[in-house]
Amino acid sequence: MRIGMKVSPLTVLKAGIPNYILNLIEALGTEDRENRYFLYTNRPLPMELRLPDRFRVVRVSFPSPGLQLWYQAGLPVRMRKDRLDLFHDPVYPLPLFLPVPGVITVHDLSGYTDPGVHSLRSSLAARLYPRHLRKAKRIIADSLYTASEIGRLFPDVAEKTDVVHLGVSERFRKVSDTDALSRVAVKYGLPSGFMLFLGTLEPRKNLSRLLSAFAAAAGDIPQSLVIAGGLGWKYGELLRAVSVHPFRDRIKLTGFVEDEDLPAVLSLAEFLVYPSLLEGFGLPVLEAMACGTPVMTSNTSSMPEVAGDAALLVDPFSLESMTSGLLAMATDGDLRRELAGRGTGRASLFTWERTARETLSVYTKAVD
Question: Residue 115 has what pLDDT?
């Protein structure tokens, strides 16, 4: 097959979606020795892709690299020129005029179901979800939870939805090199003992309630709270809450953490706290587990599916539940050791190689 994939998010985004794209195409390069891939972007990629010759990066700038003109007008023309058998958009939308079967990956439907926790642009774009879902030949959902939401909201597309879990990169392993750990600690100004939140700063990450839970628990625990992640949207209230927090001197905002530093940051943390209100998958949970870091996360959406019995689950809508969870994780060393042991085994079940193989199976269904 001649397979096209949109990779333009690599030029403008960080964190979740680009990590998915990079890990998927690298795993496809290892697992798939037959098909040819055309990786479409409207701007030069900021990194060098180490991929086999079967993979070709194609820059589409006609009629303009800006807005969505390249995607809606130029890309369909280019697809015909490249004689594609299939096109995969790993972020949702499909061109209005798609000359080949299309596959889309749905990470979550929160933009459609909870527009208030997203930027205005994302919320408006989410209104088009039904059209894209119905246009696609196959739909990849990265969790059973997301697939169930698709079936609940759009039952007419449920039969063409496949669940393909994400994987954990092999670089996420416990870091024991003291020099590397010291370098990262100094780089981000990390305290000696801390709990860690890792993710983009945005409303659905539930950071305002996390700050309240930390205020309630901090007097009885020794750990500081490190909030690591880039600014997303509607973060002004969060920054104000941090500035007036009664334990402000024990809260550290690191900003965005570079990919190569993530394993060390996770290894330094005593535990990860990830109380998101809604996640399509929740990859930081598995990345922490792979590094041997115990995890406290939410009992909602996809998090129980991802964490299994290897994390402490709390109700992210309950301040009391979150506070109790923080106290248990911070004071019970036996609990942390037990969860760390379970977590490494749990994380080993999720590999990008498996993601690639199952994605290839979806491609075959789409062209058949």
Answer: 66
State the average pLDDT for the chain.
93
User: Has residue 313 been placed in a domain?
Assistant: yes
Question: pLDDT tens for residues 29-71?
Answer: 999 999 999 999 999 998 889 899 999 999 998 888 777 889 9
How far apart CA 275 and CA 296 sit, in angstroms, is 7
Query: Do 204 and 159 belong together in one domain?
Result: no
* Full domain range(s) for residue 63: 2-167+351-367
Residue 172 placed within a domain: no
pLDDT in tens, 310-353: 999 999 999 999 999 999 999 999 999 999 999 999 999 999 99
- Structure tokens, 193: 């003992």
Q: SS3 for the chain, per residue?
A: CEEEEECHHHHCCCCHHHHHHHHHHHHHHHHCCCCEEEEEECCCCCCCCCCCCCEEEEECCCCCCCCCHHHHHHHHHHHHHCCCCEEEECCCCCCCCCCCCEEEEECCCHHHHCHHHCCHHHHHHHCCHHHHHHHCCEEEECCHHHHHHHHHHCHHHHHHEEECCCCCCCCCCCCCCHHHHHHHHHHHCCCCCEEEEECCECHHHCHHHHHHHHHHHHHHCCCEEEEECCECCCCHHHHHHHHCCCCHHHEEEEECCCHHHHHHHHHHCCEEEECCCCCCCCHHHHHHHHCCCCEEEECCCCHHHHHCCCCEEECCCCHHHHHHHHHHHHHCHHHHHHHHHHHHHHHCCCCHHHHHHHHHHHHHHHHC
In terms of phi and psi (left: phi > 0; alpha: psi -120 to 50; beta: otherwise), the region of 200 is beta
Rounded CA-CA distance 36/33 in Å is: 9
